[in-house]
Amino acid sequence: MFKPRDIEAYRRDEKLGHKMLTPEERIRLLKPYLPSPPLHPSEQANKRAMEEQQRLGVRRFLKRHWHLLVFTIIHALFSLYIRIRQAYHQVVNKVSSVYHHHHRAPDLIYNDVKDLRRLPNHLSVILTLDEDARGGTGLAKLIEEASDIAAWCASARIPQLSIYEKTGTLKGYLPRVHRSMTQKLAAYFGPNTPGIGIRAPHCPSIETAPTLAASRIENEGLKHLSVMILSAEDGRDSIVDLTKTLADMSQRGKISTSDITIELVDAELSESVMGEPDLLLLFGPRVELVGYPPWQVRLTEISHVQDNEGVNYQVFYRGLLKYAGAQMRWGR
To answer: In whole angstroms, what is the distance from residue 91 CA to residue 314 CA?
Structure first.
């Protein structure tokens, strides 16, 4: 909309033959009413891109912070749940440890399990070496844990125990492990100490006979405990070695492919490593087999206590309870 003052000035200049205003003044007078000059195509593209970037930048900023807010809420709720769950399990374990504590007495341990519907003949456990411990304390703790479990098995009259330790450190100290287990059994059983035999695949067995008092007791208590020490090399590597051996024998004509059956593989692995355990106990907070022999665990009942850390009698006892109440369907 033209201003009246500008219209009057322009008409007066026009009547005087455009001598009243200079060309610069006329341009300055008309410039506010002229349209903007068209932009170059490249300038138009840059302007649109800048506007789009600003619009998307705000949207991206809002979306990013919205996700951060949702993530923070979920993380806080999940952390609260984990804390409550851990506290609950700690209280339950403390209460259970009051009612069921072995006090290093085989009779008390046997009283805990004697009314169970079923006990495993072969119990297996997974132990972990604390590699961060200094001065050999990690190895000493590992051997002490293995000895405690052996004493619990002997007290519960479980005749066979296998201990899996991934690194193989325990296998390298069989005499020390045998000595520690023998001392632990003597501390539990006194003059009625059962015999114990410790071996590892491809290693000679170390045996200790039961005491004279224990051997004279008929139909009461465990007379001998068999302990097998395993490591990661006894797992998949054993299956690979057996597969190579069977393939080589088949190529040489010593065995036909029809003779290679599941029963044959099972028999070979049971002889070279061990048979399949009835129950596998995990003392960690999660189910982690860490390279445990896969063939031997096909039909094994696996038990662990959520949020538990370390070897303790409550995990052992609750594992036996779980095994006693489990339904063995065997594929049906």
So the answer is: 13
**Rounded CA separation 264/251 (Å):** 17
Bridge pairing between strands 224-230 and 206-208: unpaired
Q: Is 226 left (phi over 0), alpha (psi -120 to 50) or beta?
A: beta
Alpha-carbon radius of gyration of the chain: 40
The continuous run of DSSP H or E covering 8 comes out as: helix 4-15
The per-residue pLDDT for range 109-155, each reduced to its tens digit, is 999 898 899 999 999 999 998 877 776 788 999 999 999 999 999 99
Q: Is the full-model pTM beyond 0.70?
A: yes
Rounded to whole angstroms, the Cα distance separating 301 from 279 reads: 5
- Rounded to whole angstroms, the Cα distance separating 319 from 100 reads 13
Distance separating alpha carbons of residues 257 and 244, to the nearest angstrom: 13
